Amino acid sequence: MRALHFIAWLPLASAFNSYRSTLTDCLNAGSVPILLTSSPGWSQEIAPYNLRFTPAPTVRTAVKCANKANVKATVKGGGHSYGAFGLAGTMVIDMMEFQNVTLDAATGIASVGAGLRLGNMATKLFQLGQRGLPHGTCPGVGIGGHATLGGFGLDSRLWGLTLDTVVALDVVLANGTAATVTATQHGDLFWALRGAGPGFAVITQFHMKTFPAPSVNINWSHSWSFSSASAAAAAFLAAQNWGQQNAPKELGYGIVVGPAGGFTLRGVYYGAKSDYEAIIAPLLALMKSVTGGAQPSSSVQVLGWIDSLTALAGSSLSTPVQGYDLHDTFYAKSIDTKESATLSITALQGLFKYLFTTTPPGGAQWFILANLYGGPGSVINSFPPSTDPSSTSCYANRDGGYVWQFYAFTGNSQPPFNPAIITFVKNMVGSLGAEAAGLPAYAPYADPQFTQTEAQVRYWGAGVPRLKAIKSQVDPKGILYNPQGF
Ligand SMILES: Cc1cc2nc3c(=O)[nH]c(=O)nc-3n(C[C@H](O)[C@H](O)[C@H](O)COP(=O)(O)OP(=O)(O)OC[C@H]3O[C@@H](n4cnc5c(N)ncnc54)[C@H](O)[C@@H]3O)c2cc1C
């Protein structure tokens, strides 16, 4: 294990003075670099993506020191947790220096340092061997929180979630010892780390399956706008059901709803343009009939792998290792619908009525995203449920249909945050009615409004008892901390 780069928030309260001296003595003895509240660059280094959260002062140090001092430690990867959970500990371990990417040409297994952000990782994998793996679209998201909780990209129905590609993890356990974890070595921990990772170990390196990057990628979108909520709901129902029943796994498929009174179907087809056209033609015919012949505003681009990722990101894939400075100030909720049932016309009418008649508070902006995780041949749903004895991942929603995200942010993405935005988002979900109440939620879209108990049930469902048992074995003192985890 290489030296970690630690952030220490040193509280001034006298009750913490003994922690502080134990921690700093321990760190200094091990020559661990420490960033203090008084250090240059402090404010920038600790800024989370979601500026709604301003973490209280705390301490940065190594796991052994945390153990010795008996303080709760969290790990910061890319800092993109919706609840800024990487910064929630008394001590924060910043993985920024773990930037290595290597590729074994014979096996296609990539070894990726836990400090990588997705854009830099994708670029490097392509440079090393024209390879790729499934992951989200935002280049600044860190692999640390992404591959431990989920990791969805438009290629995930073809290749799986990011966590499904993980074949081994190099970790530091809560007692400060290092281990390599696989399906057959520390199998219980491997199961826990692939879905509920934060709080079970500090991951220093991921070993992941890669795939030949497709040379032809069709980035496509078709948008419609509507003058009434009922027309929008009827068209949405058709698009939702078509995707779940017909979209082949090579067709990344999502629906984006925005304030302009309509929605956009968009995704990537991983294959030839002629195949894309043959697959999408029945959808466009269906949409024409349900919209009374409306012409969509369309874009279809044939792109190489890196250009496709860049177009999805809407920016360069390159992010700085130090001094990352993109942020938002927001609240979001998610629901995972089931493969067995799409949302009904009644639920969708409730939602669009709400969207057509409600003004967001204080100039807030919003979007809703429904990405297809299930559907014909989806690799995400090809794995056994987390409770199956053969399962190697605690990711709970192997029977999912769409993952919906409801997201609202301050008009300029900066604080101050108006708490009425939280109510606005909750009411979006509420407008769907009873069908949406109690559905599972997607752990990477952490909802800080959940109590810990509710979060556990929504994210990990029937896997909760086993996760609790594993936590008590690997971290009995509760040193590694995830506010909604174990
Ligand atoms: C703008 C934006 C776009 C997004 N797009 C997508 C998307 O397309 N698809 C998708 O699936 N998700 C997406 N997400 C959600 C994202 O996957 C999660 O927020 C993810 O947890 C962020 O990981 P991070 O390392 O950047 O965050 P952090 O805040 O650093 O970490 C998140 C959690 O993981 C823990 N953690 C981080 N690194 C480690 C480690 N090495 N060892 C142990 N625990 C660790 C932290 O302690 C924290 O609990 C997006 C988020 C944002 C803000």
Automatic annotation (TrEMBL):
It comes from the Eukaryota. Coiled coil: none annotated. Residues 43-213 form the FAD-binding PCMH-type domain. Keywords: FAD, Flavoprotein, Oxidoreductase, Signal. Pfam families: BBE, FAD_binding_4. Residues 1-15 form the signal peptide. InterPro entries: BBE, FAD-bd_PCMH, FAD-bd_PCMH-like_sf, FAD-bd_PCMH_sub2, FAD-linked_Oxidoreductase, Oxid_FAD_bind_N. Its cofactor is FAD. PROSITE patterns: FAD_PCMH. GO terms for molecular function: FAD binding; oxidoreductase activity. The keyword Flavoprotein applies. Belongs to the oxygen-dependent FAD-linked oxidoreductase family. This is FAD-binding PCMH-type domain-containing protein. It comes from Sphaerosporella brunnea. The lineage of its organism: Eukaryota, Fungi, Dikarya, Ascomycota, Pezizomycotina.
